[in-house]
Design a protein that fits this description.
This protein is an alpha+beta fold. The protein has helices at residues 9-26, 52-66, 83-93, and strands at residues 32-34, 73-76, 98-99, 110-119, 123-132, 144-155, 158-170, 179-180, 191-192, 233-236. Helix 2 (52-66) crosses helix 3 (83-93). Residues 19-29, 193-208 and 210-231 have low confidence and may be disordered.
């Protein structure tokens, strides 16, 4: 019986390159958390690291199209995001009404990225607070906010896509401060701006963070007008 041939160096090199390519498809950050959590010191906390910008883009695209507002709006991205990556995210949203936060856009309705979790197994959750006008008082008092949890997944041969959407009760979350960038510096981290006033009628308690899909999401609401849902609802998205 002839001895088993030993692997050639070229074959080992090809195998190594294949594993690197597979890792690139799955994303560089297998475990990322924003805002940072003390108990997860080893987690990636930089919102500029792949795949955090991409999962934010996909989630924002779903929420802004599912719950639109009339006219221009801003997307409030996580603190620490560099302007060049924020501009790239905005460009790939392909929505002419979408803007980044600046002194000129700070008064527009805002969609806030409140939480981003990326976990091993190509799973991600993004919490976005969408503005709801005309509920709880005059519009001059500012909008209430509704948390929308978007669950996403990815496979080695498919991009990130929405798996389910959960709609939380209105008014249980307060928006984070707005963050913008200096006009002449494309790599500077975000700097704080004046946050919108919080409505006095919003309750303080909030449900647990763990997303769970239970029932279909509500039908699309008209811009700047909605009614408060009584319980969290969700919709399940299946690939074609």
């Amino acid at each position: 019986m002839s001895p088993t041939p030993r692997p050639r160096p070229m074959n080992r090199l090809r195998l190594a390159l294949s594993l690197v390519a597979l890792g690139a498809l799955l994303g560089c950050a297998a475990h990322a958390t924003y805002p940072e959590r003390v108990e997860e010191e080893w987690s990636v906390r930089d919102p500029n690291i792949n795949p955090v910008p991409e999962v934010m883009r996909v989630a924002l695209q779903r929420v802004t199209s599912r719950f639109p507002v009339n006219g221009p709006y801003v997307v409030n991205l996580p603190q620490g995001m560099q302007k060049r990556w924020a501009e790239d995210l905005l460009r790939r949203l392909k929505d002419p009404n979408a803007n980044l936060v600046s002194a000129q856009t700070a008064d527009l309705p805002a969609f806030h990225v409140a939480k981003v979790w990326v976990r091993p197994g190509s799973r991600a959750w993004v919490d976005i607070l969408r503005p709801v006008f005309g509920v709880g008082g005059p519009q001059s008092e500012g909008p209430l906010y509704q948390r929308i949890t978007v669950q996403l997944r990815q496979s080695p041969l498919e991009p990130w896509q929405v798996d389910s959407v959960r709609v939380w009760p209105l008014g249980i979350d307060q928006p984070p401060a707005l963050f913008g960038w200096p006009a002449l510096d494309s790599t500077s981290p975000a700097e704080p701006m004046t946050p919108p006033p919080a409505p006095a009628s919003a309750p303080a308690s909030a449900p647990a963070d763990a997303p769970a899909a239970q029932s279909p999401a509500p039908p699309p609401s008209s811009a700047h007008q909605t009614s408060a849902p009584h319980a969290p609802r969700s919709e399940r998205t299946r690939p074609a």
